[in-house]
Amino acid sequence: MVMAVKEKMVVRTDLDSALLVRAYRVMLLARATEDKLASLYRAGMIKGGVFLGKGQEALSTASSIFLQKGDIFGPLIRDQAGRLAFGDTVLDTFRTYLGSVKGPMRGRDGNIHRGRPREGYYAMISHLGALVPVVAGGLYARRLRGETGVVGVTSIGDGGTSTGAFHEGINLAAVEHLPLVVVIANNQYAYSTPNSRQFACADLLDKAAGYGIAGFKCDGTNPVACLETLQLAVQAAREGNGPQMVVATLLRLVGHGEHDDAGYVDAALRQANVGRDCLEVGATQLIGSDLASGEEIAVWTKEAQAQVEAALNIAQREKGPDPAEEDWRAISTERLVDGHHDLEDE
Amino acid sequence: MSVTYLEAIRAAQEKALTDDPRVFIYGQDVGAFGGAFKATKNLAAEFPGRVMDAPLSEDAIVGLAVGAAIEGARPIVEMQFADFSTVGFNQIVNQAATLYYRTEVPCPIVVRLPSGGTLGAGPFHSQSMEAVYAHYPGLVVMTPATVEDAYSMMLEAVAIDDPVIFCEHKLLYYHLKADKLPDSAQPVGKARIARAGRDATVVTYSAMLHESLQAAEDLVEDGWQIEVIDLRTVKPLDTDTILASVARTGRLLVVGEAWPWGGVNAEVISRVATEGFGLLDAAPMRLNARDTPVPYHPDLWAAHRPTASAIAARLRQLLTQ
């Protein structure tokens, strides 16, 4: 993948240049990982769905790259990049999609439903909005323990903003004045449903005022803009200014899942600014600011692809779960497991 | 000096807050007001910052508890009425109940459900939801019927590492009394023979224990000795104690206040039929509430739920089968 640089774009930003490069390389790694997932899916090598974040890497990376050890990240469907920036690995990504017992979900859950909650990396459920109050609860407990300066970030899409859990969670976080950053990726469609059928406010950011919390807007296709915005939002939360809402505008450049050809997406949107590929924009920014050359980016891309291949080779050799060795137990307290089930003695 | 079922729940929460700094209470009106039923009376003053009023958001209340549990806290959340837990249902059954299985991180939360019918409470302040939650893997469902159990099971609910649905019956809150709080407790997960007998077994739980005990007493004059089993927890369900009792009596009536379709009664009868069919001398019987919303008018309500006289009548049928 060599970036076509259409124009020299000098970017003025106070962001550290090393951070810009690191963020871009995370985006590249996420894209390479997801390209591989898509080809595995097409080859029939992944059971169940594959849900990608192509086009959302800049926002997703920015969502977690300012988090520190001890912070909380509750990513959603299109956050491969943010997951990697928070410390998830390409290997655990493949392990989860392929059901390896060595992965964090051990074949018990798959694809994007992965996390390591003990490390502040919460595992989403499929019900949109549900993670908002959970991340708030994590922050609440930290505060109760006397910890300060902790931040929690969670992501949601335009569709998820219509759920009751989103509303309840943000309102509660606002009442409790918790250091929660909610990143809304308005990617124009919730599966096939356009914004016009999703909400009636002029701008999703209008909701922030309703909750009495701070709001930020940014162009989700612009990596520098995403990083600058999230840096401000995370810092504001860390400094004790309560919940922060970030609304980024972009376009999902893939289907809802790889089973979906996204034929419902308005062709005009694809051609518009909102339909830009953030990786191309990012390459333009790095080259224009003399932070990298096209050749360097090509090398990074190859390195990312090699990293992906290496991780896949490991994950593919690992075993899946053995039903005979499972304890088939949904609670941790062994003495309280309910017995006498039909399949139990077979 | 006596202690009510409600005071026992309050005292257990007070002890949990005292003994374990990880415990906090979160729910609507639980703070300075002390809760709609006063189950948290004075606790906010006694434990500043640890007994907090929540916005009217059952989903977010349970979600907050799950997040706090991930971070090592031991939250107790109060649903003002069990009926309203439907709004927090997703967080309970999909978030709390799946966490350990999916991630190996346990979810030690207690969700208190003030449950069951009371006079004039009507369709939305009367529900018994134990079976709904018991259906989902990953939850422990407690249904204490006595003051002693209300106290000791609440303490255990906080202590165990898994999510507990604590179904406390509102009808027992004020009138059910014990001389004192218990010093020791029967293990959670074990049923209790509340009354020994030889002619038939009644399996029941929560407020229906007291109706069943009254029915058993009413049958004494006819010469019948009825064994009454208090399940205490409906999940896990102590099938062994039930089967052992049915082995002695040969006859089974299951009594519950919840609706008939599926549910605890159906589960008990299913287990006895599949695992103890040969122990039965007669077809097992069941008594539930009627299959309608819980009615408002006292006369309708009295005919909607099982009562001691309805249980006694059903037992007479069972004994002469």
Q: Any idea what the shape of chain B is?
A: globular
Mean pLDDT of chain B: 97
Radius of gyration of chain B: 19 Å
End-to-end separation of chain B in angstroms reads 46 Å
Explain what this protein looks like in three dimensions.
The complex is a heterodimer of chains A (346) and B (321). Chain A has 346 residues and is α/β, with parallel strands linked by helices. Chain A has a single domain (17-258, 270-318), classed as Rossmann fold (3-Layer(aba) Sandwich), CATH 3.40.50. In chain A, 40% of the residues lie in helices and 9% in strands. Chain A has eleven helices and seven strands. Chain A has helices spanning 17-42, 57-65, 80-86, 90-98, 131-144, 164-175, 206-211, 223-238, 267-271, 278-288, 294-317, and strands at 72-74, 152-157, 180-186, 189-190, 193-194, 214-219, 244-249. In chain A, the strands form two sheets. Chain A has a five-stranded parallel beta sheet, with helices on both faces. A two-stranded antiparallel ribbon of chain A has the order 4-5. In chain A, strand 2 (152-157), helix 6 (164-175) and strand 3 (180-186) form a beta-alpha-beta unit. In chain A, helix 2 (57-65) runs parallel beside helix 3 (80-86). Chain A starts with 16 loop residues before the first helix and ends in a 29-residue tail after the last helix. In chain B, strand 10, helix 7 and strand 11 (226-230) form a beta-alpha-beta unit. In chain B, 37% of the residues lie in helices and 17% in strands. The model of chain B has no long low-confidence stretch (mean pLDDT 97). Chain B folds into two domains: 3-178, Rossmann fold (3-Layer(aba) Sandwich); 192-319, Rossmann fold (3-Layer(aba) Sandwich), CATH 3.40.50.920. Chain B is α/β, with parallel strands linked by helices. Chain B contains eleven helices and 14 strands. Chain B is globular. Chains A and B meet through helix 5 and helix 6 of A and helix 3, helix 4 and helix 9 of B.
